[in-house]
Fold each of these.
Amino acid sequence: MKLDGKIPGGPLPEKWDRHKDALKLVSPANKRKFDILVVGTGLAGASAAASLAELGYNVKAFCIHDSPRRAHSIAAQGGINAAKNYPNDNDSIGGCFTTRSRAETFDPARRTYIAWHS
Amino acid sequence: MPFARDYGGYLSNRSFGGAQVSRTFYARGQTGQQLLLGAYSALIRQVRRGNIVLLPRREMLDLVVADGNARGIVCRNLVTGEIERHPGHAVILATGGYGNVYFLSTNAMNSNATAAWRCYRKGAFFANPCFTQIHPTCIPVSGQYQSKLTLMSESLRNDGRVWVPKRKDDRRPPAEIPEEDRDYYLERRYPSFGNLVPRDIASRATKQICDEGRGVGPTKLAVYLDFADAVRREGIGYIREKYGNLFDMYERITGEDPYRTPMRIYPAAHYTMGGLWVDYNLMSTIAGLFVLGEANFSDHGANRLGASALMQGLADGYFVIPYTIGDYLAGTSLPSIAADHDAFATTAAEVEQRVRRLTSIRGEKSPREIHRELGRIMWNYVGMSRNAEGLRQAVEAIRGLRDEFWQNLRVPGDVNHLNKYLEFAGRVADFLELAELMAIDALHREESCGGHFREEYQTEEGEAVRNDRDFAYVAAWEFTGVGREPTLHKEPLVFENVPLSVRSYK
């Protein structure tokens, strides 16, 4: 089996937007017909469940604790990154990280949304 | 979201390990808590509106795959013991990482790898399992019966200085050790990043210092994180405002006041960069199974930098999956499926059998005891530094321990009630398989890269030596059976924007 990461082409800052534009859509009336199971209700699970429900999907959210407020994400202390160059210290706002990973998926268009929306 | 703000009203930033700029947004030392309250509020709003059915106290014990698509889950109701079947059109896994494979970690007691591991056994590839992060600043282990470790945020290294006495047998209290007898080893070895070198580098340097016998405290497995300079420079009020809750937490756990005496810290397992393989749409190798947050392998490579995990978890949930799941649903034919479908019946029967098997061994050892032994193997051989011989021993030891588990496990109580031992037993059973995969992956990756440090591949000064020619790929493993060699699939890493280079923190 050949692994296909489906990473879109084009310049890094535009990848996500171009990818999004090419994705198929589900109409609002049809979203109600789909049941989505979300397992885990920490930051990733709770945000996914809430966003999908807001869009109109039927969501079932499974939580191992007695309440999603027990999720271990609560213990994260430090902070959340976004390259905004607020302090004028020459942060690269269109750039990316240089550790060896799938560096190209460090897609600033996807990542800096966090700071815009918070 | 009450992010810290600066005088002009903009959101304030601080710096984190491995970054020479300040790009970390924060809410004191409780950023995760504040973000979770936000996500939780959004979740509960939808629950109240009837768009989400919330099922707490459920543990996913298997994935149901029908005609090649993920079509539901089988879970156990942790209160009644009932095995439940839940059909759907897509499954999203957001079940966190597998740091508890080390037994002691900064993860919560309930964090586990079972959901992800069950999906691996059903055909989802597991990528880079050996990439684990050992966090340098945790409260040290104090005794054998400790159940978890507590993190002291990396942000403390903005104002705290890490040091040990220069002399090995220096037993003076820290305040009586003059400047010239102290070794600020991170500042000495890495002058440009100083105390804010990335986590893997700081952890390894601390391990080396303690291996030399220069550690402090009763166990000698700790170093000082000292705020005296910052308190002198900025005043106690500034420190309290920035880190007050962390200092309180430290004092409650250790009984020492970090405003007056340096903290004692030591590395601990904290985060796992590896996880289920996903594509750009966050879909695994099983169609319809999406994996979000720490549970997947994407974004962090071998080395997650501080404050990137919250970003990834939230970006995956708020901004990526709402778009990409629609593409899958619109482009796939998914006939309706009910809980009495054959695929559900088979999977539920397997789960029930497994749960019963765990309680019927009637041996001598509790799941926690076996877990503690597993943790010792993993910490010693698949921890901060690894070598081929140790990894081979680890594989053997893990297999032996797994055999012992299935012959000598004791789970008191029965399957139809709340049974903590039973929950732990199931998770330990899966950790015992995952641990072997981690050792196999670490053995195959003959280079040092990020959190994965192989002693054979280092410079004379003890810095990591990467091998980009042979190992610049994601190692995605396919399950072939318990105790059998998994199949390796490689996804090459392609770098379009940044030339691949070795980063120096000196």
Amino acid sequence: MAAITSLGESAPAPQTARPRGMQIGRRRRLNLFRYVTFTIFGLFFFLPLFAMVRFSLEGKQAGTFSLSAWTQIGSTPGLVSAIEITLELAVITCAVVLVLLVPTMIWIRLRVQWISRIFEFLCLLPLTIPAIVLVVGLQPIYNKIEHYNVSALQLFWVYVILALPYAYRSLSAGLTAIDVTTLSEAARSLGASWATVILRVIVPNMWQAILNAMLLTSALVLGEFTIAEILNDVNLQVALFNISRATANAGVLFSTSTAALLFAFALLLILSYVGRRRRRGRA
Amino acid sequence: MPFLGYVGVFLLLPTGIVIWDAVRNPAGQFDLSSLKLLFNPDVRSFFTGSIELSAVSSVTGAILGALLAYAVASGNPDGVVRRLYLAGSGVLAQFGGVTLAFAFNAAIGPSTGFLFHADWYYNFPGGIGLIYIYFQIPLMVLVFLPAIDGLKIQWREATENLGGSTWQYWRHVGFPLLAPAFIGATLLLFANALSAYATIQAWENQIAYTVPQQIYISINSEVGLASNEGDVLALGMVVFVAIIMVGYALLQRRAARWLR
């Protein structure tokens, strides 16, 4: 590569080289370190996942392949309804988080800047309160509202709280990147209502941040177990847990887990590509 | 303002209920005697277990995660490897949970392991610690990468121009600069492990080793050391995590001084 052509020279690194102001020998050693590190960590992260995928494809006898664990997803009692509930929960939680946060954050930025520190503190507070603690205090409240709504969908009330810190961070990054004051003043002086300002002027400008907040929220809801288990509501993770208690190492556990994980990974990979294209387009 | 109402009912009120119930006796009067429960030897063993597991997994996770973060940071900032590892870290840091225990059971479970059959799989904290490291390393990469990205090439060049070796660069420049961020991130990992519940529950739910497991037992069964045992344990955890997070915030502020 370019490194070889400039071997033995102390001239500045050629343009194609990595942006590190280091000598050639040192860079080569660094690259060796990087490849070794990536290989070892890659294996550590990959092997358990691989084992899970392999188990999901295991046939009747050890060492054979079959898709039966994947077809069982549809026929295992309770599993399909748990998946439905979890997906619905993800959608509802995303919607509530956005409706709750976006107008409030725009309003704070435009009108009441002084409150923003307290607001940030409140939004990040759930990070310091473990879910298991939250649920101890939530039980009495849930016993009260249970009269109105008895399905597991009621979990969204807490999930919104759990998602607050992640949604807040991405939305706040999106809002900082645009000039909210100028945009809204321009729209207002052209006669737009506040609803128009928010929905048709500001929201389209921070679409990337909103998408980010939605994906993080969905990932969180897909993986939530603690609160659902303790409140005796069956979501995807609780359903899997119950199956694993009834039959250890049931194949359907591994196929469903693999599917859920692939789903989350695809969401985040899409996001990272969208974000990159945006940056390029702007530059 | 709907936001305040919502946060009030579902965040502040539950926390208040926990604290209030922890300092009441069964008759409903204010009474601090329940808090003595925190010094009960049985209860202390859960706290010891939690701390042991969190310490092992956070320190190991932090060191390995920092190495990986450095390897990621020293590559092409727009390259495939970096994107893959960042997206992967985002998923895997959240991956702690029931599924993770299944994956490890499939890989190295004592009777089912695909790679090998680990006799130590059910050891505490060794076996579960290894599983925790699986989500601690990605979290470390996510929180520590900005600090490493903040290391300026000029500092490295300056060291080399003055005749410094790689070792001297790390000993006198790199490590002191990164130390506050590193310790802060370790604290965050510690708090993360402390509040984790799903993974250890799916790993082994016969024996309670940690505080969250005992909280589950005490709010789901009538037999407990006290009627409000769950609340007292929860309060103990809140205080613990709060102290750690304050330390984290202070160290982050210290670290931010150089990383602009």
Amino acid sequence: MTFILADKVAPYAWFPDGASSFVPQVDTLFTVIMWICVVFFVPIVIAMGYFMWEFRERPGYRGSPEALHNNLIEITWTVVPTMVVVWVFWEGAMGYLDMARIPKGTVDVNVTAKKWQWAFKYENGGEHEVVAVTDSVVKELPLLVLPVDTDIKIIMRSDDVLHSFYIPAFRVKRDVVPGRYNYMWFHTTKEGLYDLFCTEYCGDNHSQMLAKVKVVSEAEYKKALEKAIQEPEDPLLRGQLLYKRQGCSTCHNAGNEGANGPGPSYNGSWGSKVTLETGAEVDFDENYVRESILNPQAKARKGYGKASPMNSYAGKLKDAQIDALITFIKSLKEAPKPSK
Amino acid sequence: MSVVDRPIATPSHSEVDSYPTHHFLNHSSGFLSWALTLDHKRIGLMYLVGVMSSFALGGLFALMIRIHLWNFKDGWLSNQTYNQVFTLHGAIMVFLFIIPSVPAALGNFLLPIMLGTKDVAFPRLNLMSFYLWLTGLVLFLTALSVTGLDTGWTFYTPYSIETQQGGAVLAATFGVFVLGFSSIFTGLNFIVTINTMRPPGMTWFRMPLFLWATYATSIIQVLATPVLGITVLLLSAERLLGIGIFDPKLNGDPVTFQHFFWFYSHPAVYIMILPAMGIISELMSVHCHKGIFGYRMIAYSSIAIALFGFLVWGHHMFTSGMADVTAVVFSALTFTVSIPSAIKVFNWLGTMYQGTVSLNTPMLYALAFIFLFTIGGLTGLPLGALSTDMHFHDTYFVVAHFHYVMMGGTLVAFLGGVFHWWPKMTGRMFNDKLGIVSAIIVFVGFNLTFLPQFVLGSRGMPRRYANYLPEFQPLHQLSTIGSLTLGSGLLLALIVLLMSLVNGKKAPKNPWGGATLEWMCSSPPPHDNFSSAPTVGDPYDFSNIEYDGRTGSYVKRS
């Protein structure tokens, strides 16, 4: 099967290489189910083809109308599939209960999902860094660093709508539901870089709500944790980092980075007069930026009031961080506006 | 129970087969004679035109999706447009095509004739169902096209509460509400008709299996559809009044909406597939010229599927964070549905054994159904099993699985049924050779479209993505090529049908050799279906039905 299905892009047929302790159970069960399917499907197709040929309508042949009922056969093809599905159910349920029972002594990661950005927070309060990627529509993705050979617990929360946290290499998936915490756990088994997808439809850029998961050695993980709590001293660099880390880049363009919409671009905004939805004009200055971060709907810019509404960052950013973002936006004073 | 030792029926129309000059199509003329008709056959035909047009529209959206996905990025649609297109595709196919396709179009035409009656129990209610369907269609299309609904056909909260396309959500849910009533009235009508209007001699176990399937479907329609009505009302109330049942900002629970929604929408899957199974039972026996194998098991399994179908909705929510026990129970219940479905497949194969298999267009569609539905059913196993579902949930594996069931199953059976009863409905024979070609192209194109999607899903490709990682591109391109092949096969099928209206030979009374009552009246049937009440025999007794080369029709040897 692998031989037929593996192609030049992927050396495997069905599942990507696995990197969690759930992989053996899931992959084995799937392989067995595959063979069960083959054992049912192939004889059905062979019988169908044989009957099509053997009993085809042709001159001089007339079928016999006798075979209409046979208790033994009918009971057999009811009981055998029943036994098979009972076994499949049992295996699936046992594997699932392992996934659902979270062990003690895990390394915890807080995951916050919002349109259309993943945010990871480590146990020491540090936040995820961002990595450049080449294989995706998005140029930069949040990176979740995890230690190898460790039980990891993921605590998930959504800021807006439903999302779903899916790492194919770990064979795990769980919806992120607003208004409650959902949990997931897994045991990492192999170092490497893996994909993370959002698998519950969440609006415009659902398909760009991706992240990377990097499983590293214990020592490297410690280093990553230390780095995670640091923000640069220089306000401009700090603003740049926050722009990506806080998810501003998912809606606002800055320089030649970030999504061009639904929010307005930062380029060439500083110092200009901004026309609001109400028709009034205000100065784009420190106070306007601050208010737009803390209370985004208060002075919505004309043409953007009906765009996907931005959530307030009140309580999420310190004053020094807002200052850094202001410095960053100020630095884009001369940058050309992107074409819509 | 053996069916062969039943008394042989005597045909009520012993006169030589003749082409009728007066029939339901020319019984009266003018726009109003159709618009205000109470004739179930005309209502059925109007539904047929309606659902086929809806299908064409939904199909065009499907092709737009597949063409957009040719490259992993920078497709020809923006993300927003892509999201609206897949919403349109799903919503139109589910609410406007699949649910009414077989019951409302073919069911309306066939049910009274198969029962040997003049019409359904409540002809006026029947016409009202049609107009409700039409109203729903208009509301729905307005919502979908003018304001750009982008919630997916499932309207999941809180996205459907928050999305900017608020007018679209309200109009579409109101459309769904009205369409639901259309469905309920049709189901009610069929239940009463089958219960009270069966002719003397037609006991429950002498009913054609298409009627068993329609009966089971009607039960689901009547019992489940009201819940959909309640759900969309609650959703509208949440949007307009903020009652706080689904919206987490108001202390509601968005998962509650999923329970409500799937309590209808999972049984609705059986509203879609059961009538298709009924069609296949008819097609297999008629074109094998042999009684159906295991009649009682097929009949019971229709009822079993209808009942079990009510208990499995939770499997759409395995990853939503339900309690573990709940998930395990729903998984167990889910597997119960697989058994009656498997039994049917085996029985259809048993019907071919020692039969006389005519490999014509309807039969090839029926055989394609068995092949595709078996794949659809078997790939349900790794989705019903909990641990493997954690990997497959909301990936292309699921997309491929339900297309094998819904499209490879229901649509292919619907096409087989349309070809099978086309001579009866229109009085014209179609070009069988071209019909066979269409069936083969559809079969090949379908597999080329959806087999790669199983592999995509297992490799981790999530559904509803407007762009994707480059490693998925080759399989997506294969799927797109398949979809274009499939589209051309379906177009050919339509051309074959339409050509028959222009230059098709006149259809005889019984061109395939069927034993059910609809083959005892002329093609097309007269306004009153039967001039005198037909005598009911065994619907699957083919022992004395023989081909008459003189008229091109099968006749009953007396």
Amino acid sequence: MRVMYCRPMFSAVAVLALWLAAGPVWAQTRAETLRYVTGASVNTLDPNVPGTTREAFAVSLGTYDRLVSFGRKQLNGRWVFDLDKITGELAESYDVSPDAMKITFHLRKDAKFQDGAPVTAEDVKWSLDRAVTAPVLGKAQLLTGSMTSADQFKVIDPLTFEVTLPKADKLALPNLATVYPIIINSKVAKANATAEDPWAIAWLKEHTAGSGAYIIESFKPGEQVVMKRNDAWNRGSPEKSAFFKRVIVQSVPEPATRANLVERGDADLVIDLQASDVQSLEGKGTLKVVSTPQYNAVTFISMNNQIPPFDNANVRRAIAYALPYDDMFKAALFGRGTPLFGAMWADGKPTTSAYPFQQPVKLDLDKAKEYLKAAGLPDGFSTTFSFNVGQASTAEPMSALVKESLAKIGIKVDIQKLPDAQMSTQINEKKLPFFTEGIVAWLPSTDYFYRNFYTGEQRWNYSSIKNTELTAIAQEARFEPDKAKYDEYGKKLNAIHFAEMPQIPLWQPNQDAVMATSIDGYTYQFHRQVDYRDLNRK
Amino acid sequence: MKSFGATMIWAGRRFLSSLPALFGVLVFTFLLMRVLPGDPAVFFASGPNAGKEEIAIIRKQMGLDKPVPTQLLLYLYDVGRGNLGRSIMTGQPVTTDLRDRLPASLELTFTALLIALVSAIPLGVVAALKSGSVIDHGVRLFCALGVCVPTFVSGLLLIYVFYYLLGVAPDPTGRLDVFTSLPPPRTGFLMIDFVLAGDIDGWWAAFRQLTLPAVTMALFVIAPLARITRASMLVSLGSDFVRTARSVGLSWWRIVVTYALRNAILPVITIAGIVFSTMLGANVLVEKVYSWPGVASYALDALLSSDYAPVQGFVLLMASVFVAVNLLVDILYGIADPRASMG
């Protein structure tokens, strides 16, 4: 009797299994197709639109060319971008005048847009004018390279283009290799511009008019982008087109599913898995895992230097000595990153002029208690510690450890988990006393970090530090051509950082790229996304 | 039962009377979004160099630079013209996003509801017929498991078994294998569009893609449906008319299906209606786990990033669906039970 009732269930399962069993017919081009899965999504084809996601940056690197691009170098056996080696992309070569106030670009004669029209200096001028005049993201970026006005861009002849700078600025050239200053087919863009939208921002959001290695085949915002190779493109380093004939960028929100996909070989590459999944996939040894410390990024524990009691440097120092760094590093990242704590400074002075740097702090509760006493708060105080939902997988275990450890020196911590938009709003309004956040700089030089993340009334100054000496040195360093002097400035800035302890750098998380063993050429890029042009299949 | 025309007039009147409620939902959601503490402009201006200027641009784009009453009036004016605003997150008009995504959600929900009904009603009937037996307890256990295992757990489990271990299911990424091309969009329902296009392979691919998420969702809603079927079957099996039917020696099938089940089905229809509306909005976890491009995951992403327009559009859509489903349930009720008055 019982068996009889079980039978329908059993046959249902059997039928289900049979239905699912018929395998798909793989297209023959599978080997020539790159399937990249990501938890984020592409929301625009023009990286300049305010609100652009990082995945959209990656797509734009494939669809558009810039004048120049960064070279790559080996760092501990992994390929990473090289800020100091700028190579031509649309420019065949460039000359910098002796006073470094003029940069002349010689465009490639054979460069064509995807519609077949040649790339001319006129297009370059229109595109860069757009980047500095239109309400786009490029404006704030190019400002950091002293490019602010269309007057600075001049067409010499159809293949020669000149940029004039008000001051010798080391970051001018690197800025032109960043994501924003894409070179657009100006004739096509102008044809689709309107009176209210002279820079065709609305049109370029959904269409491309570039000369890049990949042509958009289909674009479904929030779901997937499919690109096919532009066979005429030859701006890759070996002067030939990109390897993959087709690139599929697909949004898969669930990290466990992404891990399954890449493990089963259905996806070729993924860079945003959870640390625990990476750990286990690496252990199995059937996939290639390239872990690169994100050396242009830092994760902090930040304190608002204007809100009591964190306005007292001794309180900030007390916190710096009361954090269980090693445990936090293991719990949050499984040790996958570069620690920024526990350095040894023999004479108490910074050993490096680079930023981010390792600070000589470690867990030392006695020292922490002394600092609290010096601050006049021997019995501690209460505060809230905030992090955003988007970072919960790393921030949650970490904040539990922070709470536990600070309780030992009498500081009572309430943990506050905020939706991402709320967190950024409160940071912008400088309302959070104590929180964790991360930063990234595309052009990671010491003065750039200090100017952008430690000065002014702006959002990225997480600690809201107002230190006139620090501000002055960082400004000075920006235009310092002499390497030795620059290093001296860098060390001074780092010394101020350690003395003031405005916020506590914790670590630089790894970028864990997990890929099929056949995938080669992966390079860690400044934008922390995959540049599909780098990749090939062995 | 009244004539078809009368039913339609009645339905039309019912629909009109729900308009004030929809309007209320619209205004309430609008205000609620603005009261929430996240500022979308700050969130979206998150490029490495975004400063005050970018925030101001986005605020202007979203119309947030105007006072709230003006914003509300503009919004109502736009909604009246069928424009639900633009999502910053996807860069598309909200109506386009919803139009693209609603069929995905509906297709999944309909399939799941179908699976759930087809399995829940027999389960409930069997449990009622053999009440107190091992089978009854087995059904109860199955239902309890279905309800208490969250959908993302059962979803991940099914993926693990059928995709990862056995390799029989396609990869759980959306409505269609990335290597299969889409049919020309007619209804937005892939199962229908592929048939219309005469593409059997495509239909098969879409069907395989749909199976696991639909089963995951069905597992979760079988319980209320089976329990309610069992309860109302028990009532109607114990009623006088069934006893009479038995005593006059009608066939087992006729007693159970024609008399008992038809009378027991009313509460099941009501619950199915409620379950359907709930599933459509609440299946966000299933959509996330299977990367299903539906409306619920879209609304959740929008909510996390305080993208006002999509959230408002979604709530309005859900309210309208709820109204429509309730209307449908009432009509079905009238068909199943001639006594139900439509006044």
